[in-house]
Design brief:
6 helices; elongated; about 55% helix; mainly alpha
Length: about 160
């Protein structure tokens, strides 16, 4: 008896697959697809710009000494930032510098702080560092225990946590 191969027992059946007819699109169909794709492209570009803006803000804020860039991001309005041709945000350095200048120049107002009238009555004016202001406010809050002194210390501490 002859050994039969499995290929020999199965009849070969060829299935004829008819190609699908080419779909024709009207101009209205093409315009609708183009509008949909343009919308998706614009949405993707906007999301990419927002992600790039946040990334660059965090990087530059950290480089310039901001201790908690996430917290600072909550208070900063970045709607005025523009993008150049290569997609990089412009103006973030100026925003961070302005915030640093405002904090360093003005600092928080300490409630209950006594001020002397006149320039030379207390000796020459000396600029206090942020750290020395924080230490003085903490000492005053400990000594007096008054709610306004404690609130002033808390506010000063909150403002100085942005900067290392």
């Amino acid at each position: 008896m002859e050994h039969m191969d499995a290929r020999d027992t199965e009849p070969s059946v060829e299935v004829a697959v008819e190609p699908e007819p080419e779909k024709t699109y009207s101009q209205a169909d093409i315009d609708a697809m183009k509008a949909e794709w343009d919308g998706q492209l614009k949405q993707s570009q906007t999301a990419l710009q927002q992600q790039t803006l946040q990334h660059v803000f965090y990087r530059k804020a950290t480089e310039q000494g901001v201790a908690d860039a996430d917290k600072l991001m909550q208070y900063v309005n970045l709607s005025g930032v523009t993008f150049d041709e290569s997609g990089q945000p412009q103006g973030i350095d100026e925003i961070i510098s302005a915030i640093q200048g405002a904090v360093a120049r003005k600092g928080p107002k300490i409630i209950g702080e006594h001020r002397q009238i006149g320039d030379d009555t207390n000796g020459p004016y000396q600029e206090k560092s942020t750290q020395s202001r924080l230490e003085a406010a903490a000492e005053k809050a400990r000594q007096t225990g008054r709610p306004e002194d404690r609130a002033a210390y808390s506010k000063l501490k909150q403002l100085t946590t942005f900067w290392r």
